[in-house]
Design a protein that fits this description.
heterodimer; A: mainly beta; OB fold (Dihydrolipoamide Acetyltransferase, E2P); 2 domains; five-stranded antiparallel sheet; two-stranded antiparallel sheet; 2 helices; 11% helix; extended; B: alpha/beta; 13 helices; 18% strand
Amino acid sequence: MAQEPSQEYIHVAYTMSRPYRWSAGKYLSKLYKEMRDSKKLVTNRCPKCKELLWPPQMVCGRCKVRAGDDWVELSDKGTVAGYTYLVYPLWDPHAGKRVGEDHPYATILLDDGMYMVSRLEEQDKEKLKVGMRVQAVWREEGRGRGLDEDILYFRTIEQ
Amino acid sequence: MAERVAIVAAAQTKYHPDRSDVTEGELAYEAIEKVLQETGLTYADDGTGIDSSVTCSQDFWDGRTMSNLNIISYDGSHLSCEDKIAEDSTNAVYCAFGQILSGQHDIVLVVSHCKESQAEKSIIENAAFDPIFMRLLGFDFLTANALQATRYMYKYGVTAEQFAKVAVKNRGNAKNNPFAQEPMDITVGDVLRSKMLVDPIRLLDTKPTSDGACAMILAREEKARKLTAKPVWISGVSNCYETHYLGDRDLADCDALVSAARRAYDMAGITDPLREIDVAEISEEYSYQELLWMEGLGFCGRGEAGKLIDAGVTQMGGQLPVNPSGGMLSGNPTVVAGMARVAEAAQQLRGEAGDRQVPGAGVALTHGVTGFCGQHQCVVVLSNK
């Protein structure tokens, strides 16, 4: 039998920009505007279970009822519940490319009881600990484009 | 069929070109809240409440690879049972119907949402073409459908005037539909003088950009009879895929729809659709499609739908009114369009369609389509007996 000729496999390359403009709606817009204009975190409370929703939204997913407009200002302080170091660059959705990030990422239990994922200012691995107290560092001129734009990272504090 | 499944409540949002005031979930909840209030149901898996949700949305339109995540707080699926359908939402109704007949679930919430205002339609649609063989043509649905329209005109002698009559009829019918986005008093001349988009499709031959949602509750017979005095039964349902490649079929025909309709009619015991169906809600994103789909649905022979529109058979008061709601042309989002058809037909069969009511309607045909040139077709037959 004749030898099979070596195969060449074609790859079709394709690049397409696919723009979106998502509305944040009434509830997330309120949070984003408070962050941009007043450097404050706010959210709404479920009228049935009395829990704070995070992020703020129109319906409590647990109780399945309209959450309404019982708005509460939150502390921007919290406790590190876990953290990790980046080993490869992440996507920057505004730049459409991968970028390096020098700051560790952490899950932070805010003092009002909900978890937030953000960056930590501290880059020295020796100084990072679960349980350490942190506070948000806000961008000077708020952009109103979301949580991770207006909070730069969380800074270690004494308490 | 051993057991029957009914629609016990259905609700739509008003369709709108830009609902920037709400997220997808908040939009969906406007419809969901109405069916919850109408039935008094809550979520429970002990036989007393909604025990499953079937959602319908499309990842590319929503811009995330799990578009059902947008609405989990709103459709009861948080820590509960949920499935997502990513085709036209008639298929979500089909899925919920199957969930109930399987015996797994008793009462199922079905929800579809889409905000076309948030993305670029042409780019999203281009991604529906397979990337290795067809996508680099740069087509969107408008251009592909224009090829189908021209081939349909050439093969069967259907005319642009007959397409325009569909646009005039449906936009006029929309004046009686409080949920319709673009009711219009227009003439055939207005359509034929509107801006040419891709020959032969003009601006008024197409639907506007639309945001909206639809919700309904399906239940097995025993539950349905307790939930409403006016159950609307799903008496026949099927769907079918065409070949994907435009070069692998004659675009003037719609064999997938013929197959889907045949199976749905067999199940519903329908042998002469034009006589036995009282009202039809057909997904016509483009005016020519209402005529072509009517042929696929067996309302007439191939190439004969133009004569039906000329004779007024499908207008209000005709033998078989098609799209009393105003149809997709008057403004429904893709994805949601099929459920909008089913919701409208359910209102008809309950005698609750207001000024667009077809008197005495007992059997309704609803249809949904996914993709360009009728790629995937779904047919749902409803009855109030």
